[in-house]
Amino acid sequence: MKPSIKVLVLFWLLFAGNAQAFDFGKLEDKLKTELPVNPKLVEAVKEARGPDEAEEIAIGRQIAGNLLGASPLVKDAKLQKYVNRVGEWVASQSERPDLPWHFGVIQSDDVNAFAAPGGYIFVTLGLYRLLQDEADLAGVLGHEIGHVIRQHHLKILQQSKLVDLGGKALSKEIGGSDKVQQLIGSGAEIVARSLDKNAEFEADRIGVVLATRAGYDSFGLPGVLQQIGHFAKDDGDVALLFKTHPHPDDRLEKLGTAMDDRFDRVKGKTLEKRLYRIKP
Ligand SMILES: [Zn+2]
């Protein structure tokens, strides 16, 4: 169709009806009768909206349960309490302080950490043993908190449609139904899977900012990354981490550019003596 004809047709559509076209009251009635609500459209809108916070937390709780089924919490109540205290303090600096945050150290020699939607965060024993002070822990937890507040994993779950984010199955049957468990079962695999590189760099930046806001030395996370970078590439303990995250050297480079010299004058605390030491 020639552009001039298009304009004509448009003009006709807009104005050539009759005066009624401008009576919005009647127009609304007309729309209601002639355009019944399309259920597919309603679902699509819901899906685009994503899950609400209660759904997000329910999804995370299931995934966390599955993770703990594979690698249980280290049986050291003082350690778990300590990690929760530090984690909650760092998370309280974020834009989602009111999520029901949970932190834990899990039984695994791997060097890694995981975040599930809704505020469930786990550090492996292998990674915990690398920490030198509380600022290191704050930085590591800050990175994972960054994944949660930016909903990095939730977005992947949503895209992969592993979870019915229309919410019906979840909100009504959560906890009990096998079907829901089945849907989210693969979620544990998802939180251990690679995210987009930029999501990792973003989580690093957030980790540094949150730890600094919480009063810690800003260089905790970079310090841990440096240590992890020293592992041999074929070391089994870092295999999964190296597979799912950009190499620590790349992360350090990006973080260095982002931090520039802005953190140099901030005098945060390292709290070396306060780090809870696990008996060897
Ligand atoms: Zn990460």
Describe the structure.
The protein is mainly α and 280 residues long. The chain has 15 helices and three strands. It has helices at 3-15, 24-34, 39-49, 53-70, 77-91, 125-128, 134-149, 152-160, 168-173, 178-185, 187-191, 197-213, 220-229, 239-244, 248-259, and strands at 102-106, 113-116, 120-124. It has a three-stranded mixed beta sheet. Helix 5 (77-91) crosses helix 7. The longest helix is centred in the N-terminal third of the chain and has 18 residues, at 53-70. The chain is elongated and about 75 Å long. The chain starts with a helix and ends in a 21-residue tail after the last helix. The relative contact order is 0.13. Residues 10-21 and 164-177 have low confidence and may be disordered.
Total DSSP helices? 15
Low-confidence sequence ranges? 10-21, 164-177
> How many β-strands, per DSSP?
3
Q: Work out the helicity level.
A: 55-70%
- The overall pLDDT average reads 81
Could you say which small molecules are bound to this protein? zinc ion
Strand order, sheet with most strands: 1-3-2
Order of helices and strands: HHHHHEEEHHHHHHHHHH
What structural class do helix, strand and pairing data support? mainly alpha
- Overall shape: it is elongated
Strand content of the residues, in percent? 5-15%
Largest sheet: 3 strands, mixed
C-alpha-based Rg, rounded? 25 Å
Q: Report the span from N to C terminus.
A: 79 Å
